[in-house]
Amino acid sequence: MEAKVARIVETRNDNTKSFVIRGLSPEDHEAAQRLEVPLEHRTFPEAMSALEKIKSACPKQGS
Fold this sequence. Notes:
Elements: E1 7-13, E2 16-22, H1 26-35, E3 40-41, H2 44-57
Antiparallel strand pairs: 1-2, 2-3
Helix pairs in contact: 1-2
């Protein structure tokens, strides 16, 4: 089974750039909601920080 890989995607709408976290596992998505971490950010560093916060809140997946 292939593991899901979370990634940060740059999007542009009406001359506005944003960075969206995509590809979260169901557990990561639940953690983001629980921590009230938004999945869309104005800068890449903000998005990276949010992704790290989400990942650190989830228990590590066994191999």
